[in-house]
Every structure is written in C-alpha cells, then in structure tokens.
Design goal:
about 130 residues; mainly beta; seven-stranded mixed sheet; four-stranded antiparallel sheet
Length: about 130
C-alpha cells in the first residue's frame, strides 16, 4: 500500500529548529518528486519546498527560503525538511506529498501531487 508518513513536528520557541521526516511505505522514492506543504488554521495549503527525484533540483517558497532546507535519501525511502529560525507564522500542519516524475523538475503546487501524508503539527510559540 502506497503510504507517506510524516514525523518530527512539535512545539518550539521562536528562533528554534525542527527536522521533519517523511517516510515512504509500499514504494520506492527514486522516481517520485517530493513536495512539502503546510496549512495553517483558516488558510489554504501552501507549497513550502520541493525536490526532484535525484535531489539535484530544489525550490522554496519565498517565505521560507534561507531558513528551510529540503533533502532526500532514496536508499532509505526518506525525505526531510529542516526548519530553522522558526517564526510564529510558520505554525501549521506540515504535509509531504509525492508524484511520479522524471527529469530535473519539482513543483510547489499542491494539484501536481498524487500522494499525501497525514501531516505533522508544527507550533512556534513562546
């Protein structure tokens, strides 16, 4: 069964850091683009970052560029999102998503993705 499972969320103070993980079950990640999205209460789902199948191409939303880092380990069937210099406005449920692809591409639009995890809560508060 094709499944993505996020972990690593939690409560952190402003300026703190978290590392989110996305584990793939039932398939290998090698041929899948990975995206990270977030949704805050009362807001739409926002594309945060994405990474191509090989990891050679990454992209970030302007709001997180320079603070967040996306990575992947295809051998371990894992993807990661490192969150640094966190701000209260980063508070949201964070989701990873996957779609089959080839070539050096990735997408920050949620409609591009076929498979989604259940999300992990990140709360930034003092």
């Amino acid at each position: 069964q094709f499944q993505l499972v996020e972990s690593g969320g939690g409560l952190v103070q402003p300026g703190g850091s978290l590392r989110l993980s996305c584990a793939a079950f039932g398939f290998t990640l090698d041929n899948y683009v990975i995206g990270w999205f977030r949704q805050a209460p009362g807001k739409g789902r926002e594309g945060v970052s994405c990474i191509s199948t090989s990891g050679g191409l990454t992209n970030y939303a302007d709001s997180v560029r320079g603070r967040f880092t996306i990575s992947r380990d295809n051998g371990k069937k894992m993807a990661y999102l490192e969150l640094n210099s966190l701000k209260p406005e980063d508070t949201a449920v964070y989701y990873c998503a996957a779609r089959g692809s080839s070539g050096s591409v990735c997408y920050l639009e949620s409609y591009e993705y076929d498979y989604w995890g259940q999300g992990t809560q990140v709360t930034v508060s003092s």
